[in-house]
Specification:
The protein has about 220 residues and is α+β, with helices and mostly antiparallel strands. The chain has helices at about 20-30, 40-45, 50, 70-80, 90-120, 130-150, 160-170, 185-195, 195-215; strands at about 5-10, 35-40, 60-65, 65-70. A 4-stranded mixed beta sheet has the order 2-1-3-4. Helix 1 (about 20-30) packs across helix 9.
């Protein structure tokens, strides 16, 4: 059965691959499973029909038969668990890959999102200039730790897995800040993820949506 995911009809990231449907697209491309996309506007995201799929009125959602999922991490874990290509067959390695998925979302991403909030929503606040260096330092703590763990390996734990997919997706959010450039091993790690054919297909599909929306505007 072909799953259907939801995505922004007009993404606020302006085609940079930051919207969370990108992660799900990438996962489905990695496992070679076709999917359909239903585009939703910001108004439609808060309408009852979408709220029934996602109680917080966000994207992405995932529908496959009678199954409805929300939250990108949960969707990717489901995709990886049902189809080969994103989780190792060995039980211990599989558990570690899932652990890296949670680390990306729960440990590495929160300070990065805090930076985005500081830059986009709080930049006019009188205390913004003082707060920003503190946010940067919290991110650097995590990048120091992650860089040390990665070392000179290509991926976090052996072969590429859903853990790497999620971690790369999170780190990409630092591109505009310049912080990732302070960590050459992590910058190379992200570049390896972006160079994967599945990532390129997913990015092209998401970018096409943005370009089509821009053309209509």
């Amino acid at each position: 059965m072909t799953p259907t995911i939801t995505a922004f009809a007009s993404s606020p990231d302006r085609g940079q691959g930051l919207a969370r449907d990108m992660r799900v697209r990438w996962a489905l491309e990695e496992v070679g499973h076709p999917y359909e996309v239903r585009l939703v506007s910001f108004d439609e995201m808060k309408a009852p029909a979408h709220m029934a799929l996602h109680p917080f009125g966000q994207i992405p959602t995932y529908e496959e038969g009678g199954l409805v999922l929300f939250e990108s991490g949960a969707i990717i874990l489901h995709v990886a668990g049902r189809r080969p290509g994103l989780l190792p067959e060995d039980a211990d390695a599989r558990a570690r890959a899932i652990g890296w998925m949670f680390a990306a979302l729960n440990t590495v991403e929160p300070p990065i999102l805090d930076l985005q909030i500081a830059r986009m929503a709080e930049h006019d606040a009188p205390w913004a200039e003082q707060r920003l260096p503190l946010v940067h330092d919290r991110i650097r703590v995590r990048l120091d730790q992650l860089s040390a763990r990665l070392g000179d390996a290509n991926w976090l734990d052996g072969a590429f897995s859903a853990g790497d997919l999620m971690m790369v997706s999170v780190l990409i959010r630092l591109r505009s800040s310049g912080l990732l450039n302070e960590y050459p091993t992590l910058a190379a790690y992200v570049a390896r993820g972006e160079a994967r054919a599945a990532y390129q297909r997913a990015f092209a599909a998401q970018l096409a949506v943005f370009r089509a929306a821009s053309a209509r505007a």
